Give the backbone structure.
Amino acid sequence: MSPDKKLGVNSENMKMEKIVIIGSSVAAISAIETIREKNKNLHITVITTEKDLFYSRPLISYADLTDGQRYYRDKNFFRKNNVDLIFSEATSVKNNSAGLKNKKNVKFSKLLLAVGGKPIIPPTVAGINGKNVFTLTTVEDADNIRKFCKNKKHAVVIGCGMIGIKAAEFLKCLGLDVSIVELMAQPFASVLDDKSGKIIADEIKKHAKLILNNSVYEIKENQCILKNGEKIPSDIVICAIGVVPNLDIAKKSQIKTNRGIVVDEFMRTSRKNVYAAGDCTEAIDILSGKKTPIPIWPVAYRQGAVAGSNIAGIVIGYAGGFGRNSVDVFGLPVITLGLSNEKAGEEIVFSDEKSKVYKKVIVKDGKIIGAIFIGDISRAGIFTGMIKDGIDVSNFKNEIFSENFGYIYVPKEFRSKEVTPIEI
């Protein structure tokens, strides 16, 4: 069977096809660029609720960026790529039509769900829907927080993960005293080990009050009550527990979901002619071998490109990805790669507490499956490439943190730009 038939592509009808993309973040943009590389004539319509487009979500909490730094595509991107834009909320997919909240329908030949993730809101916390409670995942969220914080003094951040840290820094820049409440025993508990977690906790405590092994029980207008009964002042609360795949449309449309929207290697969902890409999906993790959501920028971009190519009739498969996190904790850089807190394999560690430098790689069956870098992240790109390419490090694993370690240790066939990712 030819690839075209495998994907249900009829090249004679391609010019007549109407492509609809729900969502406008990086997976959608990547899909559009890929479709236009393959086919200039396909009709593309994007349905989105966001009025501010092409901004980098990881940078929304930075107050002093120029437009050139904040936006990753030109404001005329849709016009230049001949894309129709509908500002509305899509609610379901049925009979080759995307249903909108205003009851209108947009017909499609093929559809891409690039709806991203949505913040976790704990329903058991009293007052969680109050006017002083915000999330921080869009530029609109950041603008609303900035406006609300005028003449405010005290802030509470629920959660001490990547979003929580950026929220805390944002609030500090706005002039507020910040308390961070974390349920686990350390920050970034899912990706840091005990030693690196302590380094990060100590750094946070220089800038904010850090409350560990506790949770917010009730939110009031001017204070939060914790599970242990402690009361802390809070004029504003940021809920930064994390994000989960947005499954609303998929579930309403009887599209198969698990933790994320289930897709195959071509980014096809269980519904014919409907694809999905980005933070809303679950796809193969090359390190664990399991399908799981990996809500990071490079994965979303690659999945969008794969979906776009297949929508355009050029068959390619998605090879999988792995988790990567990069954040500055009040100026201290942190990068984690892969299964960074996995209790398996051999651990190779370099630590210099005085300089706040901590580096660890986990090697299993000769290959790196996880890594942590704090303070010194200068060679993280090389390690990312070695994980991605599955390079056997058995012969040089003891040299990994030496001053002379670099591309000379990497097999020649892997010494390319692919070894050093520009987006972590």
User: Anything to note?
Assistant: The first strand starts at residue 18 and ends at 22. The radius of gyration is 23 Å. DSSP finds ten helices and 26 strands in the chain. Residues 1-6, 416-424 have pLDDT under 50 and may be disordered.
